[in-house]
Amino acid sequence: MTTTTNTSASGSFSENNVIVVLGAQWGDEGKGKLVDIIGQEAEVCARFAGGNNAGHTIVVNGNKYHFHLLPSGLTNPKCISIIGSGVVVHLPAFFKEIEALESQGLSVSDRLFLSDRAHLVFDFHQIVDGLKEVELGKSSIGTTKRGIGPAYSNKASRSGLRVHHLFNSEDFATKFRKLVENRRKRYGFFEYDVEQEIERYKNYAERLKPYVIDTITFMHRSLASQKRILIEGANALMLDLDFGTYPFVTSSSTTIGGVLTGLGIPPQSIGKIIGVVKAYTTRVGGGPFPTELHDKIGEHFQQVGKEWGVTTGRKRRCGWLDLVMMKYSAMINGYNSLNLTKLDILSGLNEVKIAIDYEVDGVPLESFPADLGVLSKVTVTYETLPGWSEDISTCRSFDDLPLNARNYINLIETRLNVPVEWIGVGPGREDMIVKKINKI
After folding, report:
1. Where in the cell is it found (predicted)?
2. Residue 29, SS3?
3. In terms of DSSP bridges, do strands 2-5 and 56-60 run parallel, antiparallel, or are they unpaired?
4. What's 333-379 look like in SS3?
5. Which of 48, 168, 222, 388 lies at a CB distance of 3.0 to 4.6 Å from 262, suitable for a disulfide?
6. Contacts of 334 by beta carbon, 8 Å cutoff, 6+ apart
C-alpha cells in the first residue's frame, strides 16, 4: 500500500486521546494511509503485535518510506514510536529499516523505542519457517517466511529469547545454543553458524541499548499525561490466531484484545476503535474465501487495485465485499467507525455485489463458522446494486460521490450498524473523505 502525505490531519483526537486502527478483513486493507493521516497529530504511535511480515509505503514530500516493522508514526518528527512487548523483532531487519529511513533523511534518534520484553526473531526461525511449509506440503499456510510463526511458537513454549536477554551475553549464548539444538532435533540438521550468530548478537546488543526501554511504564506515563496516542494494528481480525480462519492465520493476537496484552494497557484507556475495510475483499495465501472471484471482475480488482504485497510481492486473491465476515469482525473488535478504502477501484463496474448471508445445504448460517470445512462449502447470498461510471478520485465530501456509490456505503452502514467515517477514493492522503458520523 502506498500513501502520499502532503497535508496535515484535522481534529482526529478531538474527543479521544487513544485511537486504535485495526484491520477488519484478511489484511492489506490500507491501514497505513489512515495511520499516516491520524499520525500527523499523534504524540505517540505504538505497534502491539506481529513482526516484519507486513508492509506499506508512505510518500512524504516526494520521498518514499517503506515500513515493515517500525511504526509509521516516524514520519511525524514530533511523534515517539513504540514497539511493544507483543511484537517479535528480527534485529537485522530492525536496523536495516532504520538505516533505510535515515539514509533518506528521516532520523529516528530519541523517537523510536523497543520493549525490553519483546521476543526476538532469529535467522534460524526463518529457516524453520520454510522447512515447516515444505513439511506441510499441499496443506501449507503460505506464510511470508519471515520466521514470525516459529518465534511466536518459541514464545508460547516459554523457550524464546527476549530483548533483555541480550544484555547478559553469557546467559544469552547458553539459551541460544539450546534453542537451535532443539529446532535441529525437531526438523533435522540445517546449516547455521551458531557461534557466529552469538557474536553478531553481542554487537547488536550494544547498538540496541539506546532504543530499549520499559515500554509499559512509558505507555502508562503517556496515558497519565493525556498524550495523543495512536495504536497501529498489523495484519487483521481474520488473521488472528484465535478468531481468524485457523490455521490460515498469523501467530499473534491482531484484535483489540491484542492491543491490551501487546502494550500492557487497560481496556478503559481505549477511546476509539477504527476498523479498516477494503471496498472489496482480498486475501494472500491459502484458506477458504467465500466471495473470491476468478473472472474479469476479480482481474479488475487485482490489476486496477494493484493487489500485490509490499513485503512478499505475491498477488492477492480478490472477491466481493463480505458483510458476513465483517459482522463477525465488528462483533469482536467493537468498531466505533470504519474506514472504507479503495472505493475508487469499483468505479466503472456496471453492478456491484455485497455478500449478506451464508447458507449450507439450503440452511442459513447464524454466525461465521469456525470449521473451515463448513466455510469452504457455503453458498453466498449477495445483494446486487447498480454500479457507477464516474471517476470519484476528486470527490472530497460524501455528497460529491455518485448516488450509487453513496447507496453502497449506506448499505454497509445499515447492515453492520457501524458508521463509515473515512472513505478512501485514491492512493494519496488527500484522497480521503471524512464523513460526518450519524447515529445508525
Report:
1. Cytoplasm
2. coil
3. parallel
4. HCCCEEEEECHHHHCCCCEEEEEEEEEECCEECCCCCCCHHHHCCCE
5. 48
6. 256, 273
Report the C-alpha gap between 207 and 211 in whole angstroms.
Answer: 8
SS3 61: coil
Residues 53-95: tens digit of each pLDDT: 877 778 777 778 889 999 989 999 999 999 999 999 999 999 9
Mean pLDDT of 159-188: 91
Burial of 261 (0-12, 13-18, 19+ CB in 10 A): middle
- pLDDT value of residue 1: 47
Confirm or deny that 31 is annotated as ligand binding. Answer: yes
pLDDT above 90: residue 310: no
How many percent of the chain have pLDDT more than 90? 76
Distance CA 397, CA 423 (A): 9
In degrees and rounded to multiples of 5, residue 340 shows phi and psi of -85, 115
To the question of whether residue 311 is assigned a binding role by annotation, the answer is yes
DSSP 3-state of 274: strand
**60 grid coordinates:** 512524504
**How far is Cα 259 from Cα 404, in angstroms, rounded to an integer?**
36
At 242, the pLDDT band (50, 70, 90 cuts) reads very high
Determine whether the annotation assigns residue 294 to a binding site.
no
C-alpha cell of 360?
Answer: 449450507
Active site residues: 28, 56, 155
- Tell me which H or E stretch contains 182: helix 169-187
- Per-residue confidence at 6, pLDDT binned at 50, 70, 90? very low
Helix, strand, coil shares, percent, the chain, to 5: 35, 20, 40
Would you say the pTM of this structure is higher than 0.85? yes
d(CA 322, CA 381): 10
Q: Is 185 annotated as a binding residue?
A: no
Give CA angle at 211 (209, 216), nearest 5°. Answer: 110
Residue 33 marked in a binding site: yes
List 57's β-bridge partners, or say none.
Answer: 2, 66
Annotation-wise, does 6 bind a ligand? no
Q: What is the dihedral of CA 100, 150, 292, 393, to 10 degrees?
A: -20
2 annotated to a ligand binding site: no
Give yes or no for residue 274 having a pLDDT over 90.
yes
What are the grid coordinates assigned to 97, written together?
529499516
332-390 tens-digit pLDDT: 999 999 999 999 999 999 999 999 999 999 999 999 999 999 999 999 999 999 999 99
Show the CA angle centred on residue 271, arms to residues 267 and 275, nearest 5°. 95
